[in-house]
Amino acid sequence: MIDLAQVCALRPDLAQLVAQGPAALVARVLALEDELAVVRRQRVPLGDSRTTHAPPSSDPRPKPRSERRKSLRRTGGQPGHPGHRLAPVVAPDEVVPHPVSHCRGCGLDLSQQLADALIKHQGFDLPKTPLVVTEHQMECKCCPQCAAVTRAFPPPGVGQPTQYGPRLAAFAIFLYTVHFVPFHRVTDVIAQLTGRRVGEGWIITCHTRLSAKLNAFLTAVTKLLRAAPGICCDETGFRFAARRFWLHV
């Protein structure tokens, strides 16, 4: 049994509830039970694949544990490590001089005085990438014997009077196919980098042309898959002996 008088002396908040009567004490107990239930729901999961119909892949993953053994060395770079930094180059692509024209102390004109030393700062950045326009001039010659006109053939990739080159087409397909950039954003990226905005239809045409070249490859792969005794179509995770395994379908 507890000493109610002593508890009320140490806890003024409980003394106030006792003064209010049994109804106030019961209300306080019910409120504490509700708070405890909320905390328990937050700490204990509602269920996993062992207690519900949820798939094993939805089970919460345990925190990965490092397999490295503990060492007495401090974390980070070790003493004597050379480190890595952006090293300056001996022959930069462009040199921009910054002359001193006047003395910072007295304002004397120093424009004709030779510099005592040069402090070099090198900035590494992407160059401006405007499109390079290459004109191909195909000769046309009339045969003096039969009057037939013969013209030189244009190189591959320049079959039209004006068209974008294969490298720009490859860059557009790279953004769209590999990085999943939408068509309108691909045109924005190319416009920002080159100053020329390509059409979305041109990107679709390039993508269709490239896909057609893969038909033979896809046919061969499909034939091999159909002849294979087993094909992995899906995988799901499950736990056994406190470890995660994968079930291949």
What topology does this entry show?
Blueprint: H1 4-10, H2 12-20, H3 22-43, E1 140-142, E2 149-151, H4 166-178, H5 183-194, H6 200-212, H7 215-227, E3 235-240, E4 243-248
Antiparallel strand pairs: 1-2, 3-4
Q: What is the molecular shape?
A: extended
Span between termini: 64 Å
Strand content: 5-15%
- Overall structural class, as computed from helix and strand content, comes to mainly alpha
Taking the sheet with the most strands, its summary is: 2 strands, antiparallel
Overall radius of gyration: 38 Å
Helix content: 25-40%
Q: Please report the number of helical segments.
A: 7
Average pLDDT for all residues: 86
How many distinct beta strands?
4
**Low-pLDDT segments, ≥5 res:** none
Provide the spatial order of strands within the biggest beta sheet.
Answer: 1-2
Order of helices and strands: HHHEEHHHHEE
Write a structural description:
The chain is mainly alpha-helical. It has 7 helices and 4 strands. The chain has helices at residues 4-10, 12-20, 22-43, 166-178, 183-194, 200-212, 215-227; strands spanning 140-142, 149-151, 235-240, 243-248. The protein has a two-stranded antiparallel ribbon with strand order 1-2. A two-stranded antiparallel sheet has the order 3-4. α1 packs across α2 (12-20). The radius of gyration is 38 Å and the shape is extended. It starts with a helix and ends with a strand.
